[in-house]
Structures
1.
Amino acid sequence: MSRGLKVLYVENDEALLGLLGQSIRLHPKVDQLVTARNSSEALEVAESNRFDAALLDVSLGPSSLTGVELALELRAKNEHLGIVLLSQHISAGYLNSLPDQFGYGWSAIQKSATLSFDYLVDVLENTAKGKTVVDPNTSIGVEDNANLSAKLTKRQHQVIALAATGLDATEIAKHLNLASVSVRQELSKCYKVLIPNPKPGTDLRTAAVLKYLRDTRSGLD
């Protein structure tokens, strides 16, 4: 398409919504990103916006439609909307297990600490064109499954937890009464613990925060 993508991103974890949403919003292929925390918010914004693709967490909490149910509602309003389902628990045959309505322009990718934003936006772009993409990395490795956050020191837990709220090193230093250089050193150590074998091009800060959130919260599925 000649213009950039218009994307709807729905995620019930606000920290992840802000972190991943900001990275997608800044991508050069994306013209507009609108976020929602549940199915009600998503359906409301869909009334006044026409999106090219929707990125939907499969599990959106007990008071919301599931990502799959929401996808069907959104698709009923916009038959050309590309749907990308995002979950920690997507298997290789996930799309094949869904109802017959899942054909044109449906994709599924693994929620992972090492998820490449370029790859994610490419999936959104191709799905918006009617293609189907199933993430080849559907099997979770031992490192990705392991609770690596348990290896962090108390200070490192404090630093990465504040980083997960969006604070930079200078702001974290003020909160913890530390020098900025000390915070940067602790962040570097966190990256090595949480993302021991990063793929080329991995944004270490974002990947480490995603891994930390998944290790320490039960809602990131």
2.
Amino acid sequence: MNTTPSIAWLKNRWVILGAIALLSLLLLTVLAAPSTPQASGSSFSRSPDGYGAWYAYLQQQGIAVERWERPYKDLDAELQKRGLPEGSVTLVQVTTDPLAPIFDAEKWLQQGNRLIILGFREPVTPANFRSTQPSPGGAVTVDTRRRRKLRQGEQQQLGDSFGAVVWQTSLHQGEVISTTTPFLAANAYQDEPGNFKFLADLATAEGNTTVWIDEYLHGYKEADVIVEEIGQTWGAYLANTPLLPVLFQAIALVVVLIWAGNQRFGLPLRLTTPKINNSRAYIEALAGVLQKAESSEFIVEVIGKEEQLRVQHALGLGNTLLDPDQLVNAWTAQTGRPANELNQALQPYWQKRRLSETDLKIWIGKLQTLRHQLPT
């Protein structure tokens, strides 16, 4: 009786079941995982709506930029702790959530500091979704139809006939700068240098030398803040952790492991005997013998010859070993470097000297340095 078709069917059946199990685990991971809308606009994010590229741009420009990961009540204490003068810090908040909590900025502004809010919700206008706005630092690309109708005391920083895209308001001794788009200098605009420069100029204008990017708004917190807010106990941590996705994933993983432990995906495979690398074994054995015999002449001869040929090839002198004087003259003529560099590297080989283990390591280091000096 021919059993080949049934065996093939069983093999395909287990493959299909395995694929279904893995797909189920993947779907559970995706569907049950908690969403993280707070990550949009974060300087930790490398997605198109993140601000990681702008953060790196500020660092490249030599601007003092940091991430703020503490409650807003700590702002004043942090300024005093660092000895920063009043009116020297700009706090940048990027929010795509109109209901996101905005801190009470009165004291912050009274000290002469600046607050930039990216993502202030304004009405939609008939303006084109994409437009290019002129600015002192270059053209700024804007992707939004939302515009601000200026009110008393507000000054337009960027906009068109439909209204303001960026505007400034002076409050107390400080300033508030708002935009109708949260993505003014997001990662998606890395090819628009005017966007990055425009926002950087806003953050550092009027003598503001330090920029803090609000990551507390996006859920990032320093370790001591987490301990203070949810406590140090496992019970407090679990009480604030969504366990349903973890439970689903754990159950799916256990089912897959149990099933995989009792079934095989096809016929058993025979164990193969690993092949012995005779060349490697010979080299290792020879190295051990030479080390015990303290015979370094052979090593110096082999390595020195190869390194001289390497130098000759780099200088275009062929494969025939030259006299030391000929090689040194060619070295100085073609590289313009002193002859002493080549002499020190190849002298042990030319003089057939015996080297101690320490001297051998030093010599190898000189040869490595010589390689970096060879013309390419």
